[in-house]
Give the backbone structure.
Amino acid sequence: MGTDISGAALDVARGNARMIGVTARFRRADWFDGVTGRFDLIVSNPPYIALSEMAGLSPDVRDWEPHGALTDGADGLTAYRAIAAGACGHLSQGGHVLVEIGPTQAAAVSALFAAQGAETRVIRDLDGRDRVVIARFSA
């Protein structure tokens, strides 16, 4: 199941799925609102750029991508708070969450998931920057 708050983003995802032969359900949702069921894996690339960092982005990104896909309009952690808080209620036992992060967010995002009972680790990208937090919920 793929979710997004943006209908336009869901249209792109549906088209991409058709193009590569993936059968999936898509639902318009604000994080977990209206999402039922249990999942082995939850993956998200949420808007993680702090509002204070937007001006420093490359114009190719800042002026092209929808702002709602880039920033939460606050500290860049709003999505992680929602995902961490709702993950246990939507994961199968032993399930995992993988979230893309900004290169300075590993400690803060890991702490949000740890506060919800997850074991976390960070994966770096090919440039050596922190890029993904993996959260494993054992219960």
Remarks:
- The chain has a mean pLDDT of 95.
- Residues 37-136 form a domain with the Rossmann fold fold (CATH 3.40.50.150).
- The helical segments are 7-20, 59-62, 67-70, 78-87, 106-114.
